[in-house]
Design a protein that fits this description.
The protein is mainly α. It contains three helices and no strands. The longest helix has 23 residues. The chain is rod-shaped.
Amino acid sequence: MMKNMTIVSLVFVLFVLSLSQEVHAGPLAYGICQTGCNDLAVSCYAAAGFTFGTVTGGTGIPAVLASCNTSLGTCMSACIAAGLTPIP
């Protein structure tokens, strides 16, 4: 009797899970988006003649690097939408 209940319960759980129509791949999309943002920041730094990650922030940084950092922040904040959007 207990074995039949276990099988019925398992079938019910599998049936309920099969009703789901959506897959949430948000964390993967979020990581891919952030990688793309970092690639753009590295390219921006290289175009300015600097190496990304070696310049400390502060008042003495060139304006072009400040714009690279601002663009990086804007891009990464846009990645939040990619992380929260369900992907079928």
